[in-house]
């Protein structure tokens, strides 16, 4: 059973979320319900959930603020924003903070079912493939790269976080995984890009920014090096959901 937290400043909207999202049907136990994001984050700090469903406009601290704080504190729930605001700026910020899906009100039950199915699949896959890192310098370095690869992560920053000499750390990574630090970091970024594409994020500029590249051109170059395809070719090669459901 996975754990979920729901947040909305309207008690009737909370009830609507409980009903529409059918948490127990998808294998979720709602462990917290909050009418403000600040209280929700205090609970999340002590009881990290697997899923957060949050409204966006809630007074002093918004749902985006909550997503940002979870991201900054390295909590990694599947985060779903439920919003009445069809704003490109909001959507862009949401993906920057690792939001899994931006769902518009009024809530459509069929769309919610699709989102919950994807959320459950993501958590199942994460549980199955959760990496076990060795408890040594290399293992800790790789774990840090994997968790921070979408940030402005340089060898010097990694070395400072590991309290290690950059040259020694560079040699350690190259010897341990067979490729230099930058190549390993970029591989992890490309995997993050693939995951975002699977969630429906196909804007190359937004993808590049969300996974830590300084420009779409750099993202395009690295993605093609890693996959032998351009980002758009990779997107086009994926089977569509509709065709996959036809019998």
Give the SSE layout.
Blueprint: E1 2-7, H1 11-21, E2 28-34, H2 37-46, E3 51-55, H3 63-72, E4 78-83, H4 88-96, E5 101-104, H5 109-128, H6 137-148, H7 155-162, H8 166-177, H9 181-198, H10 204-210, H11 216-227, H12 231-237, H13 241-245
Parallel strand pairs: 1-2, 1-3, 3-4, 4-5
Helix pairs in contact: 2-3, 6-8, 10-11
Provide the CATH top-level class of the largest domain.
Alpha Beta
Reported CATH architecture of the largest domain:
3-Layer(aba) Sandwich
As for the CATH topology of the largest domain, it is Rossmann fold
Distance between the termini: 31 Å
Give the full name of the CATH homologous superfamily of the largest domain.
Response regulator
Instruction: Assess the beta-strand content as a share of residues.
Output: 5-15%
The helix fraction, in percent, is 55-70%
Reading side by side through the largest sheet, how are the strands ordered? 2-1-3-4-5
Largest sheet: 5 strands, parallel
Mean pLDDT: 88
Q: Count structural domains.
A: 2
Tally of individual helices = 13
What structural category arises from helix and sheet content?
alpha/beta
Indicate the radius of gyration in whole angstroms. 19 Å
Q: What series of H and E elements makes up the topology?
A: EHEHEHEHEHHHHHHHHH
Shape: globular
Weakly predicted, low-confidence segments: 241-247
The total beta strand count reads 5
Brief synopsis:
The chain is α/β, with parallel strands linked by helices and 247 residues long.
């Amino acid at each position: 059973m996975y754990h979920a937290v729901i947040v909305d400043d309207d008690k009737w909207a909370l009830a609507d979320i409980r009903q529409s999202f059918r948490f127990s049907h998808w294998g979720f136990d709602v462990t917290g319900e909050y009418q403000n994001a600040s209280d929700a984050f205090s609970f999340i700090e002590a009881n990290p959930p697997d899923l957060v469903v949050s409204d966006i406009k809630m007074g002093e601290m918004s749902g985006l603020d909550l997503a940002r704080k979870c991201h900054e504190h390295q909590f990694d729930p599947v985060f779903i924003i439920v919003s009445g605001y069809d704003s490109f700026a909001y959507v862009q910020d949401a993906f920057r903070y690792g939001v899994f899906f931006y769902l518009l009100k009024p809530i459509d039950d069929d769309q919610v079912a699709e989102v919950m199915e994807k959320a459950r699949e993501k958590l199942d896959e994460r549980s199955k493939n959760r990496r076990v890192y060795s408890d040594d310098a290399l293992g800790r370095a790789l774990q840090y790269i994997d968790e921070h690869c979408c940030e402005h992560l340089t060898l010097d920053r990694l070395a400072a976080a590991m309290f290690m000499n950059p040259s020694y750390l560079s040699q350690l990574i190259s010897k341990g995984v067979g490729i230099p630090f930058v190549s390993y970091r970029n591989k992890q970024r490309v995997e993050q890009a693939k995951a975002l594409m699977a969630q429906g994020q196909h804007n190359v500029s937004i993808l590049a920014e969300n996974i830590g590249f300084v420009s779409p051109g750099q993202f395009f170059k690295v993605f093609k090096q890693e996959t032998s395809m351009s980002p758009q070719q990779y997107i086009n090669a994926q089977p569509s959901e509709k065709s996959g459901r036809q019998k």
